[in-house]
Amino acid sequence: MQQSKEPFLINRLKSVGFAFKGMLVLIKTEASIKIQLVVALVVTFAGFYFNISTTEWMVQLTMIGLVMSIEGVNTTVEYIADFIHPDHHPKIGLIKDISAGAVFIASIIAVIIAGIIYLPKIL
């Protein structure tokens, strides 16, 4: 006998709940995401203070989302790598370094964009 499938809306609501739980775990347990959250709050307040344009808001919010999302993926890669091979292994180390490098690239671009938005307003 085939098990009945949950209604679409119930299934989506459960998915959102799992995603929200994952976001909270990430924020509660990862120091790097806490730092990025503080930076996100600082540039958000700066955006209000300097009255940045709608386009600048869109770019700034996109970069905040990108950096924090990639940090979440990086954390996932690290957890999976540690689960698969808990002992130090050069290949696992390389995988973790590449994943961290992706966060670093996004962070550098975010800093450059922040400079493009805010330096003319500060100077």
How does this model look, in words?
InterPro entries: DAGK, DAGK_sf, UDPK. Its EC number is 2.7.1.-. The chain is an all-alpha fold and 123 residues long. Helices cover 85% and strands 0% of the residues. It has one domain (31-122): Helix Hairpins. Helix 3 (54-84) runs antiparallel to helix 4 (90-122). The radius of gyration is 19 Å and the shape is flat. The N and C termini lie far apart (71 Å).
Approximately how much helix is present in the residues?
A: over 70%
Q: What is the fold-level CATH name, i.e. the topology?
A: Helix Hairpins
Q: Mean of the pLDDT scores?
A: 94
Low-confidence stretches are: none
| Broad shape | flat
Give a topology summary.
Layout: H1 8-29, H2 31-49, H3 54-84, H4 90-122
Put the structure in a nutshell.
This protein has 123 residues and is mostly helical. It is 85% helix and 0% strand.
For this entry, give a set of tags.
single chain, 123 residues, Helix Hairpins, 4 helices, flat
